[in-house]
Specification:
CATH architecture of the largest domain: 3 Solenoid
Radius of gyration: 31 Å
Largest sheet: 11 strands, parallel
Structural class: mainly beta
CATH topology of the largest domain: Pectate Lyase C-like
CATH class of the largest domain: Mainly Beta
Number of strands: 69
Distance between the termini: 39 Å
Helix content: under 10%
Shape: flat
Strand content: 35-45%
């Protein structure tokens, strides 16, 4: 029996005593049933950045005002229907349950109807009463006609006004009432960036907006619009404390009336070595329509010589672009909360439901399966999702949660072409926000691709914002059909995407590989990388690997071909942008009786045939133990490089760095063995650097903002929302140009290595 928890709408009604609403007549009571009216809400998500707390979300919304119109057998009419069933009722959420008093009930007659409207936050103020935020403009009483209109007077720009889409003409079978709350205001985001060298502490910010507006709660699924916009200006001010150090930093987010007054100004106060200052600048002259309800607009304030230059950075960005994770998200048909759920999901996929869509909603420990009556074996020997040629072709959103203590060995029942990992093989699949911790793989027999997350990745697949820690104890050497190598990677083993678009973006791995040596099934061909073992026609951006790799214990054989890189063993075609590796590499083959071996080892890449490398670097210790070459008649070749072992010089390489200070020195090596600071064998580009060619620069200098490169690929980008500690969950990817201006944080970490600006600080990483 499939025990996977399927998606269901879960709502709770409130059993309270029947009392009449104030202002409702006795005839109303007689027409009602004993079925209580309950409520549920969702709030369109925003692009909120860390530290934002004023913004309303599905999770933090705790009170709303509700209007309910009982219309008998007729439909709702804006000209005549009155909120006679609920008038501006305060409805509050506690413990995930919406409650209110007195309780209202559905009509007893199945043909009679009730229409609902909602807004938030709730106010008791009615038109004519003083209120510095919001008030009810209409209807002014329970017996006054018309849909609700909320009058708003600009406070300090910190009120996120929400209006629902009207839920009209509901009968007594319609329960609970689901409100879709939309943001009525424009979110205006101010960031600062210094254009001079003197650090500044921003202490305050203010800007202007329209002073007032009315908002109608619509009775159809239409956009929210502002009406009767006041012509006077209001100033929104915030006291802040943020140090501007050259990076682009968010100062403040204001929620403002969606109208852009002419000559809108922004004012900053700050302190520096010369004291306290106040500077003013004009926002760019955009049209009023650039400030729209439910949209966000961003401005970067560049400060130089006590002047502000404001640049529009984002316009017309929808708050609703992506949605917050919720078990009620209709996109998913599996909800994963336990190891048992994950195993059941795997069984369904491997039994034919390969297009399944899953959302993980809790951290999972795979050792919980040890006591499972049906999946006990998976605790020590996990059967991958999408195994053999039964590729997973759906979507799995880990939602930022962890999967701990995954263990894999080898299943004799599977063919050599089967991939090994949490997912065995994926095709046309999306994997997002999956974080593996303390993974252990110890294979004793061949697997074409071995990775903690994915063994075998095929075309049109996306792996985004995923990470892994752990060990892959064995390295499989061998040749699969077509002369392709058996591949082992810290995150992905074998990425063979010969058609379609495939991406690996914002991923990292700290996985040690090769502790138990190597396994040789037949011919000795392998590709091993800290993040990806072998990559064919895969585009990679803003990723890093920090695990150590060891190749050892290879038995006697005529010839071996080994590609090993701290980031990727071998790459053909595709583009790798803004990525780095920090792990050490050791190739220990001191007892080899033959020198026909081909070994390409590099701090970043072992071998690259074609494609592009842009703004990448590696810091790695490379160690080689191999017998001296005794005969020039041998045909093997060994190439060690601080960045790349072997490069055919096909493709492009710009602004890359390899620390080659620790690569093996030549000790009686013949011309068959090459050891160089940057590239073991191949031409070094003039825009690439090694330890001795930096010429006084640091790696920070050469990959710093301003490097004149730009990715040739638009990568999908999944945003992380720090306010809810979750990844976005909608699979409508949006693209962002990745160029060097935004790749790297200008300030290196304590080791002197630049860090990826898009890198998410993960407290679970060791």
């Amino acid at each position: 029996m499939n025990m996977t928890r399927r998606m269901k709408g879960a709502y709770i009604l409130i059993p309270l005593l029947c009392t009449l609403c104030t202002g409702c007549d006795s005839e109303d009571e007689s027409l009602m049933s004993t079925r209580e009216i309950g409520f549920s809400t969702t709030v369109a998500s925003s692009e909120a950045e860390p530290g934002t707390r004023a913004e309303a979300t599905t999770d933090n919304l705790t009170e709303m005002g509700v209007f309910a119109y009982f219309t008998g057998t007729g439909n709702f009419s804006n000209g005549s229907s009155t909120p006679n069933h609920l008038y501006n009722q305060s409805v509050k959420k506690a413990g995930g349950i919406w409650t209110y008093s007195p309780i209202r009930y559905w009509p007893a007659n199945a043909n009679e109807k009730v229409s609902f409207f909602a807004y938030a936050p709730h106010t008791a103020a009615v038109s004519g009463n003083a209120n510095d935020k919001i008030r009810i403009a209409k209807p002014t009483a329970f017996n006054a006609p018309g849909r609700p209109v909320i009058s708003y007077s600009a406070p300090k720009g910190e009120l996120d006004l929400l209006l629902s889409t009207g839920v009209t003409d509901c009968t007594n079978t319609h329960d609970p009432v689901q409100f879709t709350m939309k943001h009525a205001m424009t979110k205006v985001v101010f960031k600062v960036q210094l254009n001079d060298g003197d650090s500044k502490t921003i202490t305050g910010i203010s800007t202007e907006c329209a002073s007032s507006a009315d908002f109608s709660i619509n009775d159809a699924n239409t956009a929210v619009t502002a009406e009767n916009i006041g012509t006077s200006k209001s100033t929104c001010t915030a006291t802040v404390s943020i140090t501007a150090d050259g990076t682009v930093k968010t100062v403040k987010e204001f929620f403002l009336i969606p109208s852009h007054p002419n000559d809108t100004k922004v004012t900053l106060t700050y302190t520096d070595s010369d004291g306290s200052h106040t500077i003013e600048g004009a926002l760019p002259n955009v049209t009023p329509n650039d400030w729209l309800s439910g949209k966000a607009i961003g401005y970067t304030l560049k400060i130089q010589d006590n002047r502000i230059t404001a640049i529009t950075t984002n316009t017309d960005m929808a708050w609703e672009t992506q949605q917050t994770p919720s078990p009620t998200h209709a996109f998913y048909n599996y909800i994963i909360a336990t190891a048992e759920d994950l195993a059941n999901f795997r069984d369904d996929v491997n039994n034919g439901n390969r297009n399944a869509r899953a959302l993980q909603i809790a951290d999972i420990d795979m050792q919980d399966l040890a006591t499972s009556p049906t999946h006990g074996e998976d605790a020590t020997n996990w059967t991958p999702i999408g195994h053999g040629t039964r590729y997973f072709q759906g979507s799995y959103n880990g939602n930022g949660h962890t999967i701990s203590n995954l263990k894999l060995q080898w299943h004799a029942k599977y063919t050599q072409e089967a991939g090994m990992g949490l997912f065995g093989g994926i095709l046309n699949a999306n994997l997002i926000g999956i974080h593996l911790r303390n993974t252990e793989i110890a294979l004793q027999a061949p697997s074409s691709g071995t990775g903690t997350l994915v063994g075998y990745m095929r075309e049109n697949s996306k792996v985004i914002s995923c990470s892994a820690t752990g060990k892959i104890k064995t390295v499989i050497l061998g040749e699969i059909s077509g002369g392709m190598p058996y591949s082992t990677g810290g995150l992905i083993g074998y990425a063979n995407c010969n058609a379609g678009l495939s991406w690996v973006v914002l991923c990292n791995a700290k996985v040690d590989i090769g502790e138990n040596g190597s396994v040789i099934p037949n011919t000795g061909l392998c590709s091993v990388g800290g993040l990806i073992g072998y990559a064919y026609n895969v585009d990679v951006a803003s990723c890093y690997a920090s695990g150590n790799i060891e190749i050892k214990d290879i038995p006697t054989k005529n010839m071996y071909i080994i590609y090993v890189g701290g980031f990727c063993g071998s790459s053909t075609e595709g583009c790798i942008v803004g990525s780095y590796s920090l792990g050490d590499i050791a190739v220990s083959l001191p007892n080899r009786g033959s020198v026909d071996d081909i070994i390409y080892a590099g701090g970043f890449l072992g071998n690259i045939n074609s494609g592009s490398l842009l703004s990448c670097y590696s810091y790695a210790t490379l160690a080689l133990a191999y017998p001296n070459i005794a005969s020039q008649s041998q045909t093997g070749q060994i190439c060690f490089g601080g960045f790349i072992g072997y490069w055919t010089e096909n493709g492009t390489m710009f602004f890359c760095y390899g620390d080659g200070t620790s690569i093996p020195s030549s000790h009686d090596f013949s011309s068959r063995i090459f050891s160089e600071e940057f590239i073991g064998y191949g031409k070094i580009d003039e825009y690439c650097f090694s330890s001795s060619t930096l010429m006084g620069q640091t790696v920070q200098d050469i990959v710093a903002p301003g490097s004149p490169i730009e990715s040739i690929v638009d990568y999908p980008f999944i945003k992380y929302d720090f306010s809810i500690n979750s990844y976005w969950t909608d699979y409508r990817f949006y693209s962002k140009k990745w160029d060097s201006e935004y790749f790297w944080k200008p300030t290196p970490d304590e080791q002197g290595h630049p860090r990826i600006s898009y890198e998410i600080e993960d407290p679970t990483l060791p």
